[in-house]
Design goal:
The complex is a heterotrimer of chains A (about 210), B (about 300) and C (about 475). Chain A is an all-alpha fold and about 210 residues long. Chain A is built from 7 helices and no strands. Chain C has one domain. With about 475 residues, chain C is an all-alpha fold. Chain C has 20 helices and no strands. The two termini of chain C are about 30 Å apart. The chains are: A mainly alpha (about 210), B mainly alpha (about 300), C mainly alpha (about 475). Chains in contact: A-B, A-C. Chains A and B meet through helix 1 and helix 4 of A and helix 9 and helix 12 of B.
Chain lengths: ~210, ~300, ~475
Amino acid sequence: MSSAVDAMLVMVLLLNFFVLGSSRIRSIIYTVAGQGVLLGLLPVMVHEGIGLRQAVVSVGAIGLKAVIIPRMLMRAMTDLPIRREIQPLIGFRTSLLLGAVATAASMGLAARLPTLGSAGSQLLVPASLATILTGFIILTTRIKAITQVLGYLILENGVFIFGVLLLEAMPFLVEVGVLLDLFVAIFVMGIIINHISREFSSVSTERLSTLKE
Amino acid sequence: MIAMIDLIAHVLLLLLMPPLLLGVIVKTKAAFAGRVGAPLLQPYYDLIKLFQKGTVLSRTTTWVFLAGPTVTLFAVMVAGLLVPLSGRPAPLRFAGDFILFAYLLALGRFFTALAALDTGSSFEGMGASREVTFACLAEPALFLGLLALARLSGGLSLTALLGGQVGGAWIAAAPTMVLVVGGLFIILLVENSRIPFDDPNTHLELTMIHEVMVLDHGGPALGAVLYGAAVKLFVLSAVVARLMVPVASERPVIHWPVFVVSMLLVAVLIGVVESVMARLRLLHVPNLLLGACLLTGLGFILLLGSSS
Amino acid sequence: MGLATIFIPLLGAALAFLLRSNARRPLVLPFIGVAHLAATLYAISEPSRAGSAAWVALDPPGRVVLLLVSVLFAVCSFYAVGYLRLRSDRPNRVFCGCLLAFLGMMSFITWAGHLGLMWVAIETTTLSSAPLLYFNRTGRSLEATWKYLLVGSVGIALALLGSLFLGYSSLAGGQESSLVFEDLVRHAPGFSKPWLHAAFILLLVGYGTKMGIAPMHSWKPDAYGEAPGLVGAMLAGGMTSCAFLAIIRVFHIVAAAGEAEFASRILVAMGIFSMGVAGVFMVRQRDFKRMLAYSSVEHMGILVLGLGLGSAGAFGAILHMVNNGLVKGVMFMSAGNIHRAYESKSTGDVAGALHRLPISGGLFLAGFIAVTGSPPFAPFISEFTILNAAFSQHRYAVGGFMLVLLLVVFMGMGVTVLAVVQGTPSAKARKTAFHDRPLTIVPPIALMTAVVILGLYIPGPLQAMISEAVRYLGYTEVRP
């Protein structure tokens, strides 16, 4: 079981790099959706014996991260005149390199923290940290509001990977609450993106620079 | 006795098989395009024809111009002797020879670039600069991939890296192996100027990379260039083929045919890639190379993470 | 029964969404505010059930915060009626509904006895307060809302990761897995230390973002600058206190694990840093609402600094949380009035507030004197307690820094505030329709009275509540 989980986590890491190196917002949305599918499968793969809870969390995560949110973002895209992230604050190659450094650092950090051998694979912790850092890089270096939302989504994906380790410890209610909150957060962000495009006829957060010292 | 057979088979295949791979690639592309295509042995006929021609040299060139193809051919041949083609120990092997392997490839490239610059043509200089730029990005990927293999096998020679242990490596660290094979396949494409990096059939100098460097070569010199390129394709394909088909056997009757078949498979794979992909814009090439670095680098990092 | 503090506001929110009349809808706010206050008083009069491992339980620090939030909201709700009457041109359905939902979620934070539940509640406060910032529908308020939402969400995501780390730390330490605070505190000594340290840092960064301590304060000046005054009051007095409550609870767990020293060092450093950043940006600040935001950054710094200074410091910090919340209410409401009257919040346009709006201007000036910690106002007592804690532990550098920074803030803030209240108002400002009305000045006056009373003496029940909260953190002796 563990090697299948390993393979999935490596896929997740590769998708991170794809997002970092890609400028087309549509393909980033598809990538993040693909990552959502992988994440949704994780709870079932890591914990042997598919209980009702794993199933519900899996279905919920896939439904939310791979279907509903990507569709919402896609719909937002059809109303907007943007197709790609043109001028990120740092270039795509630099972000790829940063991503590589972040991944390596996550591996190093995870190796220094004591892990329990029992649950799943050794890669869960580093993959989670690397995905979180990737989300951070996207969030801080891209200027389109929709790409920033995608960065936030990747960040949440990373947190979700770590959450798989604690599936038994986390009460069901909280997991559902977390997923629901994520949904509402993205929803509210979607509304605001809409307002931004109407107000500034652009969705670059670059325009959002009146307020500063 | 077996060692003798292995040695003879190794040298014969290294000398004779390379043009066949080119033929297979061309045939695959033709099949995709719905054409009959050139005969499989066409590259051999081309080479024979070229070696029968006379040589015309530009007055501005020096000895470097002819040294280019010669040194390149010699370098890739020696590199071919380092690779354990069928999983049996290679004819030449010592600890750390994978570094020599990488530098032999670099030496060949260096002399090709020098010969190109020697003509004083601006087109060739441009091609040389592009080739060297991409090589700079490809080399780290190659090294990281080889390092990952070295860490998996515990040895430092290509015989240890690509020998009988590959099967065990697949069992121990499948994700790493997938990443390394993926990365090395990209290296195979870029080092041999294949699509999506470069189009070997292009006729527009401005878009050429490798082909533009050898525009001024003709006759036997061009033959040597083409033959050297074929050998280089053969050598790198052999590395990928060894990783993808990790058969280890003691009996030449088994492992040599397996090797030949796996090489043909790699050639078909290259043909498929060339058929379904378009050539990348020059600006995007470094991104893909960086991707190759990331693949092999990630493979290497995964090993570090799991063993410590 | 005490759970009514959560359900009453949520019911009120539903009611506000259902009501059709734009003019009468704001009247829901004071009704709910008073009902919430009554429910709160009932809840805190019940004996605390400390030690019960329930998911929903009001712990002693939670009581203090609940009381503060409830009082602040009840007062602000009357102001809201006056404010929304002035802005009758705008639909206020979303505003009223979200404001009440926001109150409900803040109460929920105080009741949450489970790390995950608390996380959900805090995240929901971000979401329910975002529409409040966008009430004015301008480009600038949109920008502020976007930053608030994004920065807040990222912070809260880190807090979730920290919560998970904490859970994993208990698993890695061989303890049974539970995220209920009481269980966590009981099992804390067996936790895996590296994971605990990482969890504390992540939770501090995450909830610190909500609280607005530097360097995670970037959303604050924009949000406070663009939000209506009363929203600023609820954010600066209520939500930041709830975030501080989250940090107190996390600190409690870490201290129970025997790592109080580690946590304190970080808290003190963050506190000093926040005060320093606030001091730097406060000097020559020309926008008086943004100035209030930096003042909030400064006071959040004082809170975490106090929490890191042992039992006396913790007492001071919790008391200061109450005082700061009340004073911020005064400041934001009076600043909102001045903003309305001058239709500007830059010191370039605003002068002579004492002439134009004698009462609001006077309150603003008094609020400034109070918030910078001058006697006889309440913040003086709490800041003095924290300083005293620093010096009595022979941490002269910490105390010295704090004194110097308080002085810098006093001077920086003083320049701006005096520019606002003194001088003569411009001709344009004289012509605007706004003037002090009972509904917009009685609420801040009420809060100011409370600040003065707390400065003169701390009522017994409040003192008992704070002492209980400090004892709850594991300190045996409480010496205010």
